[in-house]
Amino acid sequence: MDVALPTLMVSSGFLPTGSLLESLIHISNEVASMERLPVIQVRNISTMIRRIKLLSSLFEEIHEMNTPLPPSSILCLTELFSVIRRVKSLIQGCKDASSLWSLVQTELISSQFHVVVKEMGRALDILPLSLLNITADIREQVELLHKQAKRVDLFVDPRELQRREELLQVMATNNEKNAKNKALVDFREVKEILSSIGLRSPLDYDEEMSKLEAEAQKQAGTGGLIVVSNINNLISLVLYSKSMIFSEEHNEKTNEAFKKSSASFRMNNDHSSSSQSTILNIPDEFRCPISLDLMRDPVIVASGHTYDRNSIAQWINTGHNTCPKSGMKLIHMALIPNYALKSLVHQWCRENNIQLIESTSSSSSDLGRSSSMRKSCEKAVDHISATKTAMDAVKMTAEFLVGKLATGSPEIQRQAAYELRLLAKTGMDNRRIIAEAGAIPFLVTLLSSHDPRIQENAVTALLNLSIFDNNKILIMAAGAIDNIVDVLQSGKTMEARENAAAAIFSLSMIDDCKVTIGAHPRAMPALVALLREGTSAGKRDAATALFNLVVYSANKGSAVVAGAVPLLIELLMDDKAGITDDALAVLALLLGCPDGLEEIRKSRILVPLLIDLLRFGSPKGKENSITLLLGLCKDGGEEVARRLLLNPRSIPSLQSLVADGSLKARRKADALLRVLNRCCSQSHSTVG
């Protein structure tokens, strides 16, 4: 609520006596008949309504007299009309406002009631009771009201102060929990506090969150970042408390059901496996916190805790969106395989002669899983992740973090960029909401930061955001390419450079972006430099980005000029780099450019390498190897053709591909054999 009370004085222009009294009676009755009064400020509101009712009796009696009034009484009545209007506005504001925010502001609101009572007393100072023909009873009551109003003290309900103190302690605990993941909120205490201010049902909680959101918008322009942040903390607390308080009983039933289900699952498995797993003491870290059984397919949820896939999927599918172990709100419903723990579980099972029978939904790539089960699970997860509650939580978090990016110190910006990076890592909805919160321009600016961690977090957050196609357009519109290329060329850390290359790959999925990025004078040289200097992952990021860019013909020449060809050929021999297929794919595209073809033909080591790859390469590698050999042999490539004919391994390898290769490989191998056959015939005729 605002600190200042509205000025509604109308004494500069008096109403006619009859109209003034009618207006006073009407507004007094409106105040006296107000329903569903708020739980906060109960005593101040009830006392004020009692005063207004008493004044209403005065107004009615004066109105019934129907006699002229002295000027001082008209002035008094006009001032009282203004005061009562302010009382009505104040009580209505308490009714419409958030109960929690009113509780936090209880001293301020109490002082507003106190100011209004004092103004009522000053208005009664000029009421000439002795000149009014009213009953003795009404006169005594008004005189008493006048005395009380003159000496009234500020009243702040001690119970509300106590509740506020308890609320602030809970908020501090909740913030500590979110920051350190250690402290636990006592939801019995939270429920008691919220119940005491009228929040008793899920609908009450929803209405309270709506009122808090409205208050946050109201305060955004005037209250400052700290006030808005405090309101957002209250929203978070209500949201979190609602999910915990109203699902607690159901959660216990579900846990019990999971335990029974787990027992049944063990009984239905292979008898020897079951008996061994029950006889042996399973390490606690290998047990699912829900079923207490051995985790056959451990997965990580958004809170960071690990569960068996079957158990957590059942938990989610029954309508929960919290972590069973910590009670934290899950900001997304992705189930990420915990490969490290899975490997340890498998090793433990082998050492203890336990046959590990994985569940039918143990892997997203398991071909034996039924499509109906998969579709059912995906539908349930999609439904939960798309709920308004989850989206509101993400929106609130994103807006808060963007505010920190905009106004925070370097340390706060570093943390905010890191949290946005994590939030954007999963879920298209998250990426959309973060962009809508206005994060992209601030992240682009932070790419120029001298702080290595800020730069790294900013470029990685942009990479994650760019996975959502509409964000690609927003990132390009924010003028990010210059800054991303700067990071790619001379980033503070190798990870920042590699993620900049990955961002270019992601952005270049859109054709218009291929043109813009390819036209940047430093983009191709920077990618080639990373191809030379990066880690294995960095080399792959650079190669895939190059591939995307040279799909657009006009970019091929730039890649050749930047020195990509000899480096890509060199990488074909680098087993540690592990990007043979990526390098072949880029070379195959550069073959379509005259400068690229000329540069590729200069290599003396490429043809033997390609022949070996025809025999030992991957299916994709074989296809690109044939594409390169065929291109090199055409249009003046007789020398390459002769070298192929002289190599005893080339013809058998091509014949093998014609028989057993992929459709594309068979077609190109057959074409290359015909080219070689013609070359061989021409050689014989020349000799003849």
Automatic annotation (TrEMBL):
GO terms for molecular function: ubiquitin protein ligase activity. It catalyses: S-ubiquitinyl-[E2 ubiquitin-conjugating enzyme]-L-cysteine + [acceptor protein]-L-lysine = [E2 ubiquitin-conjugating enzyme]-L-cysteine + N(6)-ubiquitinyl-[acceptor protein]-L-lysine. It is an enzyme of class 2 (transferase). Pathway: Protein modification; protein ubiquitination. One of its GO terms (biological process) is protein ubiquitination. Residues 281-355 form the U-box domain. Keywords: Repeat, Transferase, Ubl conjugation pathway. Its EC number is 2.3.2.27. InterPro entries: ARM-like, ARM-type_fold, ARM_PUB, Armadillo, PUB12-19-like_N, RING-Ubox_PUB, Ubox_domain, Znf_RING/FYVE/PHD. CDD domains: RING-Ubox_PUB. ARM repeats lie at residues 438-480. This is RING-type E3 ubiquitin transferase. It comes from Vitis rotundifolia (Muscadine grape). The lineage of its organism: Eukaryota, Viridiplantae, Streptophyta, Embryophyta, Tracheophyta.
